[in-house]
Design goal:
- A hairpin with a 6-residue loop joins strand 18 and strand 19.
- The protein starts with 5 loop residues before the first strand and ends with a strand.
- The strands form eight sheets. Strands 17, 18, 19, 20, 23 and 26 form a six-stranded antiparallel beta sheet that branches.
- The radius of gyration is 33 Å and the shape is flat.
- With 679 residues, the protein is an alpha+beta fold.
- Helix content is 40%, strand content 17%.
- The protein folds into four domains: 180 residues, 3-Layer(aba) Sandwich (Rossmann fold); 72 residues, Methionyl-trna Synthetase, domain 2 (Beta Complex); 143 residues, Orthogonal Bundle (Isoleucyl-tRNA Synthetase, Domain 1), CATH 1.10.730; 103 residues, OB fold (Dihydrolipoamide Acetyltransferase, E2P) (Beta Barrel), CATH 2.40.50.
- Homodimer.
- This is Methionine--tRNA ligase.
- Is required not only for elongation of protein synthesis but also for the initiation of all mRNA translation through initiator tRNA(fMet) aminoacylation.
- Pfam families: Anticodon_3, tRNA-synt_1g, tRNA_bind.
Amino acid sequence: MKDYKRTLVTAALPYANGGVHIGHLAGVYVPSDIYVRYLRLKKRPVLFVCGSDEHGVPITIRARKEGITPQEVVDRYHGIIKQSFADFGISFDIYSRTTSETHHKTASEFFRKLYDKGEFVERESEQLYDEEAHQFLADRYVTGECPHCHNEGAYGDQCEKCGRDLSPTELINPKSAISGSVPVMKKTKHWYLPLDRHQGWLKEWILEGHKEWRSNVYGQCKSWLEMDLQPRAVTRDLDWGIPVPVEGAEGKVLYVWFDAPIGYISNTRELLPDSWEEWWKDEDTRMIHFIGKDNIVFHCIIFPAMLKAEGSFILPENVPANEFLNLEDRKISTSRNWAVWLDEYLKDLPGKQDVLRYVLTANAPETKDNNFTWKDFQARNNNELVAVYGNFVNRALVLTQKYFDGMVPACGELTAEDKATIAEFKDVKAEVERLLEGFRFRDALKEAMNLARIGNKYLADSEPWKVIKTDPERVKTILNLSLQLVANLAIAFEPFLPFSSAKLRDMLGMTDVEWDRLGQTDLLEAGRQLKQPELLFEKIEDYVVEAQVQKLLDMEKANAEANYTAKPIKDFIPFEDFEKLDIRTGIVTACEKVKKADKLLCFTIDDGSGTPRTIVSGIAQHYQPEALVGKTVCFIANLAPRKLKGIESQGMILSAENFDGSLSVITTERDVKPGSTVG
């Protein structure tokens, strides 16, 4: 591999329309931070760039819904996102935003250069237009009936019920989400990046030149490049964004997909106004994009085409994109609030940033989708961080405190067992490096944890708590080597778990961390006074994770309730048909579960006739039988009898189905005689 002078690392710009959740952290920000921290430990020049993506239609929709300006929306979420990253130790050199003056200038200049070079094509097309609001409608501003599942609340780009991608013109009975009026087709002009012109060199550059890319990245690029690439619009009709800097483009802004990746450039320029070009235009710079799989095409095909068209920029050397992280076996959904938000996580589990970083790295969706569960989170904390890493560190420090007043003892003559242990952990450095250089963070974490496993085995085999009684000098060597291993752990885990590594270094009195010293046995000199040992990690109890699962379920239920819409009314029927139903009231005199039937309850009803009526109803999962005794219920009295589990049911109990599927038996507001008619 070429020996680059510097490395530019970019992390996907999070969209300032909401907070950051664990899927974002696992997919992009923890792996990029691990890599950057590793490069810094190696003393390699590196720049870590990110910022908020603040333009686009979803932000204008949220602003309109909340009755505030788009700027107020992005100001709120930019602050939340930036703080969440800081709280979790994501060590950007700059975290800026696409509403900055520097970004507006940089994006405008970029577009204008391509425009002046003739790198765009102009096209006129017909798009939906709201005559009442006097504006063209972005896809999300058009709603209507989905042509596939007939959901009446589908958007012009996607139906959130069936998940199908749509175009606004596919919707049945489309209407404007702004005014509610029926939109019309109207001509408009836009500029397009002709990706078809770039297909040849892109094929050679990726398919021949970057076969080392992750299989999921390479495969998605190959799939796209084997089709005919089409020109892609770089402008749109909208009033929120960067104005298109050419005459005749009034009311048009740069499309957010074109504007956003330029944010990497503008943020670098903001940080280093005099030397930013060195990081973007010097062939001795290696650029790495960390993204999620939904951004692969943009960062591997479209953004490189933009850079190539401009003519003076370098292209990315690697794009280690991750797949998606699911939550409790279901896809994370921000609209349905099925997510674990970082700001809320720290309120519920304060001080446990490294636990989440560890679990997300151990479960990293590097080449396929993976799953986060709270039970696995608990198990990895208790069985690995506490029982392996924390246990070894604590034993080594506590024994040193107990036998040598917390002072590092001198190392004496090494036994064969000592030498074997040293040889084993010296190999870990090379393996961790190899895996990190190959963007295999999950496997690199396993190797770092192996150091703790080696230490635990060494202490268990050496048994210093027994040897101290007969050979205190031997215990000095055992604990010296154990403490050297602990110091190695402080270095090895620094890229992965920066908070606990800092705590451990403080206990050891290690003021500096040098990656190149990983694997050495002289990190702590004899006679060094150590601080009182503290636990690095603590056990997480069942009730903690059970509360988190319940919180998810409660959020989902509240979200479903807030977004509830009644089912469509059935077709009209003649009044005579309704008159055929004989709906009566009756008092429940007895109720019991039907044997061998989980859903059925058997009611005995006083219907006013003098003869008890039996009705079997499928509501056993919603009521305890005894809770219904004595209630006055409504039932259909003239349904033909039918047998259920051998019991003849003489009618139907009426119930209302709530938004969450729960049932509520229909009762009367005041006491009425059994057998009273309902109508």
